[in-house]
Amino acid sequence: MKALVLEKKMKLVIQDLEIYQKCDSDEVRIAIKNVGICGSDVHYYQYGGIGAYIVKEPMVLGHEASGVIVETGRNVTGLKVGDRVCMEPGIPDSKSSVSRRGLYNLDPSVQFWATPPVQGCLCESVVHPADFTYKITDKISYAEGAMIEPLAIGLQAAEKGHIKPGDVALVTGCGTIGLLTALSALAGGCSRVYISDINSQKLGIASQYNNIIPINASDENLFDRIMNETEGNGVDCIFEASGSPVVFPTLHEYAAPGGVIVLVGIPVDGFGQFSISGIQSKELRLESVFRSAHKYKRAIRLIDSGNIDVKPLISAVYDFDESLAAYEAASDNKSHFIKIQIQLGS
Do 7 and 81 meet the contact criterion of CB atoms below 8 Å apart? Predict the structure, then answer.
């Protein structure tokens, strides 16, 4: 089958691979339709690794996907050939102590698409456990279905924020995850969400949504703006979604006493400096997010109901044979694109 393969840093090729995966009794075979390009995919492309995960052998990229079922195992119920689906990309060990506690996203043995040495899903078809495959309604396009994975992370972040109705939040970072976190915070009960960045075009996309208030941190003082609009109290929840270590030292300044900081973005080098005394002086809570667990069905319901609209975030969809151009566009740090996808079938 045809697949998009990262052979090494900055070298992507579309190849015909001799891949055959048997569809076992509890699995389904899925013809892939749309695949989103994630920041981690771009990082593997640009640098050949993320932390301890190094691309040592050719690897198929992609983990945000939708498709249609073309085969089912004999034990599969609730899914059938022809169903339109999206897939949770991490397969944990169901018997591990972490998974048994419900925290399967933290299972150290999880097999996660496009994380070396695990192959990704940017290929014509994949075999996947039925338990991690979710039906989407006809109201949800394949492009929207491929947004379920990043939306699930936003919902994970909102849950970690312990949002109360009427809360005010700040999201730092106006990328895909930042915007989906902002939308999740609104769906979770926030009355308004400020979102900061230095990319005016991305902030312009954020301004399309009711109760998301964009702030260009290169044009105005973020602290003054937040304090002026919260009567000097600060926000109840801060979601750090940029992964920029520049942001970390001052995060506590924007928070109301007793508030929470949720770490969503991951710094490239894994480090960020905090003001511990600043956090303690306000008795702020620190929470963190790593992927998601038990969020896919909620994400699907929110898109299906219209409570969350992800369509404005899908900036461009490239055909599969244009994959190299898609990755070049996604790698442009100055780009106004939010989410770029690759389409393998209509």
Answer: no
